[in-house]
């Protein structure tokens, strides 16, 4: 990535849930940055804090959630301290979001056309006619046939893949600098997943929109991401460029995660037998019983006493690769 | 949409046919000899008089013939004659119908006009003291019997404060009965609206609307209200049925000259043709109302109307 400027810079984002004695910390000082036109994948198991990070950026945390610290810089503005009014202006216009479930994420009682044009009318002050013309262009851009007809249809009249294309068109409507895609392919059939990935790659290519891709699907990551940030129990534990991370993961959790991906091309040495799929023993600790140490300690094959006592900081291995592990980056 | 309406009208017709059958058979469900009981009110009738009455009412015919005669007369607008006063039942009912309609719709307007905004507000302020207060009020509204509420309102506004008349025919005397009728159903509608709105607020598409950067007013009114209305409209249909029943009681409390009072008189005098006419008219009104609401429902929910 030569001479790329930072678009999004998240520093030390900490999010807690609940209050009083039942208060738990769900994100522990998450930091990463995203450059213009870049695709960064945020990878982790369910409960690792991927979606929470996205919702914090958008200011859409559920009512029990609370940002306890950190900064989310979009350009020169901190989204966390923006006024409600400015935040509304930012959402959908400079940063927009594609959600996981296209069936329930579109309003069932409004036409596709209405859901596409309303953002344009509000953010860009477009007239109905102008917004409609733009919406037709957007539907063509995301590869939907018969755009005029689609405009008049309701979400339930479209297939899952078509609905996700509509979601993407909606996210693109105001030409945002950044699209946050939260598991954009998880709810779709495999063949449709591939189409949506191609569409997103194409859009990235043509419009130069940066994408924050949130997923647990390493296949999608491999196809789309320039860089990858691995999240475990609310901590970023490794960041690297895609190829580096797939080839030389440093954190034992990342290693385990990659080993757990089914592969058809690797055989047991000297035989024709396929390698048995590796698994990560144990499960992610609940946010309620966290210690001061590295949360991966109980599952880690190389953990030491220090790991249980103290959380390792993110330590750069080289310009593009950082890891939080006492053993791998002392 | 046209097909949906036609299908709905067809089922409404079947409901009406079943109602008319039940109403026609009603007279046979009464224990003892209805004709003797009807006539015993005045004097002791002779067997000849009883037979003449039976013949006049068509009760001497086989059941299926009675039903077809009954329906045949209904189709020509003849609902029979009241036993007392011997006026046509249709005429008696039609005279009172506007009064009951006025009262019922005023009550419904109060119930919807206050119930929906209150429920909407409570849902928006969920968990606040205003929400708790409104819902406590709603529970009270549902629990209080309307005849008691009516009497209390009369006591306060007519007897103590002297602001409104106890009874009468003008619009001012309609206020108290309409409020009495409306409050109960307002409470039901407020609770329904609140829970429907809270459910919609948690939907993914509301999060999408917020993520699009739409101001909260558009999120509420364009994205949340209409889906929530869908479940509220279904309840309004049920509420309207109860409201018509409630109107019978309230009319008697306030001596409101509507169908309800007529019905109670008819029951007291065992005026069966009038009772039959009253039941059939109420059934028809409720069926028509539910057809209209189903059409509103389909209009609100494109998943039904667009096939």
| Contiguous uncertain segments of 5+ residues of chain A | none
Order of helices and strands of chain B: HHHHHHHHHHHHH
Structural class, from helix and strand content of chain B?
mainly alpha
What count of domains describes the coordinates of chain B?
A: 2
What's the CATH C level of the largest domain in chain B?
A: Mainly Alpha
Main β-sheet description of chain B: none
What is the CA-CA span between the terminal residues of chain B? 8 Å
Q: Can you say what the CATH homologous superfamily of the largest domain in chain B is?
A: MetI-like
- Averaging pLDDT over every residue of chain B, what do you get? 85
Q: What proportion strand of chain A?
A: 15-25%
Structural class of chain A: alpha/beta
Could you walk me through the main structural features you see in this protein, from its secondary elements to its overall organization?
The complex is a heterodimer of chains A (330) and B (307). Chain A is an alpha/beta fold and 330 residues long. Chain A has one domain (6-94, 174-323): P-loop containing nucleotide triphosphate hydrolases (Rossmann fold), CATH 3.40.50. Helix content of chain A is 33%, strand content 23%. Chain A has helices spanning 50-58, 84-90, 102-105, 112-124, 128-141, 147-152, 160-172, 190-207, 218-224, 242-247, 252-259, 305-309, and strands at residues 6-17, 24-35, 39-43, 65-74, 77-78, 95-98, 178-182, 210-215, 227-232, 235-241, 315-318, 321-323. Chain A has an eight-stranded mixed beta sheet with strand order 6-7-8-3-9-10-12-11, with helices on both faces. Chain A is globular and about 65 Å long. In chain A, 42% of the residues are buried. The mean pLDDT of chain A is 88. Chain B has 307 residues and is an all-alpha fold. Chain B has two domains: 2-75, no CATH class; 89-305, Orthogonal Bundle (MetI-like fold), CATH 1.10.3720.10. Helices cover 79% and strands 0% of the residues of chain B. Chain B contains 13 helices and no strands. Chain B is flat, with a radius of gyration of 24 Å. The model of chain B has no long low-confidence stretch (mean pLDDT 85). The A-B interface holds A 58, 60, 88-93, 96-97, 99, 101, 104-111, 118-119, 122-123, 154, 156-157, 167, 170 and B 203-205, 207-216, 218, 222-223, 226-227, 230, 300-303, 306. Chain B: The chain crosses the membrane at residues 9-30, 101-124, 136-159, 171-190, 228-254, 274-300. Chain B: GO terms for molecular function: dipeptide transmembrane transporter activity. Chain B: Belongs to the binding-protein-dependent transport system permease family. Chain B: This is ABC transporter permease. Chain B: Keywords: Cell membrane, Membrane, Transmembrane, Transmembrane helix, Transport.
């Amino acid at each position: 990535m030569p001479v790329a400027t930072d678009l999004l810079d998240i520093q030390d984002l900490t999010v807690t849930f609940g209050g009083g004695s039942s208060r738990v910390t769900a994100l522990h000082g998450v930091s990463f940055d995203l450059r213009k036109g870049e695709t960064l994948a945020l990878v982790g198991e369910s409960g690792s804090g991927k979606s929470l990070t996205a919702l914090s950026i958008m200011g859409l945390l559920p009512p029990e959630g609370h940002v306890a610290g950190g900064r989310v810089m979009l350009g020169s503005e901190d989204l966390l301290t923006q006024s409600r009014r400015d935040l509304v202006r930012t959402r959908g216009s400079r940063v927009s979001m594609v959600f996981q479930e296209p069936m329930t994420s579109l309003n069932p009682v409004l036409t596709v056309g209405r859901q596409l044009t309303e953002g344009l009318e509000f953010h860009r002050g477009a007239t109905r006619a102008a917004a409609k013309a733009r919406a037709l262009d957007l539907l063509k851009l995301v590869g939907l046939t018969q755009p005029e007809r689609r405009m008049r249809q309701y979400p339930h009249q479209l297939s899952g893949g078509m609905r996700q294309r509509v979601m993407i068109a909606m996210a693109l409507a105001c030409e945002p600098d950044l699209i946050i895609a939260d598991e954009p392919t998880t709810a779709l059939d495999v063949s449709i997943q591939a189409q949506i990935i191609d569409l997103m790659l194409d859009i990235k290519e043509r419009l130069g929109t940066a994408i924050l891709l949130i997923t647990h699907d390493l296949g999608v990551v491999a196809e789309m991401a320039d860089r990858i940030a691995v999240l475990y129990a609310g901590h970023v534990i490794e960041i690297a460029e895609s190829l580096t991370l797939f080839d030389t993961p440093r954190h034992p959790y990342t290693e385990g995660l990659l080993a757990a991906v089914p592969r058809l091309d690797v055989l047991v040495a000297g035989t024709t037998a396929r390698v048995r799929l590796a698994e990560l023993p144990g499960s992610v600790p609940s946010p309620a019983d966290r210690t001061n140490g590295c949360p991966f300690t109980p599952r880690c094959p190389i953990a030491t006493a220090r790991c249980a006592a103290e959380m390792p900081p993110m330590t750069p291995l080289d310009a593009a690769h950082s890891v939080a592990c006492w053993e791998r980056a002392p | 949409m046209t097909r949906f309406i036609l299908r709905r009208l067809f089922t409404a017709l079947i409901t009406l046919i079943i109602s008319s059958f039940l109403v026609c058979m009603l007279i046979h469900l009464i224990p003892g000899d209805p004709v003797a009981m009807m006539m015993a009110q005045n004097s002791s009738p002779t067997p000849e008089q009883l037979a003449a009455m039976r013949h006049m009412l068509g009760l001497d015919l086989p059941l299926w013939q009675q039903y077809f005669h009954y329906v045949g007369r209904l189709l020509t607008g003849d609902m029979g004659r009241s036993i007392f006063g011997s006026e046509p039942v249709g005429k008696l009912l039609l005279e009172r119908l506007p009064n009951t309609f006025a009262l019922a719709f005023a009550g419904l307007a109060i119930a919807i006009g206050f119930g929906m905004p209150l429920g909407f507000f409570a849902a928006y302020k969920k968990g606040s003291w205003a929400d708790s207060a409104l819902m406590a009020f709603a529970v009270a509204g549902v629990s209080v019997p309307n005849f008691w509420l009516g009497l209390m309102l009369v006591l306060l506004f007519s007897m103590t404060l002297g602001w409104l008349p106890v009874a009468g025919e003008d619009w001012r005397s309609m206020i108290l009965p309409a409020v009495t009728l409306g409050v109960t159903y307002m409470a039901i509608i407020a609770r329904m609206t609140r829970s429907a709105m809270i459910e919609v607020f948690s939907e993914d598409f509301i999060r999408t609307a917020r993520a699009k950067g739409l101001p909260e007013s558009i999120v509420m009114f364009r994205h949340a209200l209409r889906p929530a209305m869908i479940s509220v409209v279904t309840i309004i249909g049920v509420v309207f049925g109860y409201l018509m029943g409630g109107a019978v009681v309230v009319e008697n409390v306030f001596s409101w000259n509507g169908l309800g009072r007529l019905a109670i008189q008819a029951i007291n005098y065992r005026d069966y043709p009038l009772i039959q006419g009253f039941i059939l008219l109420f059934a028809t009104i409720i069926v028509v109302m539910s057809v209209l609401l189903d059409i509103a429902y389909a209009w609100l929910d494109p998943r039904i109307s667009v096939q």
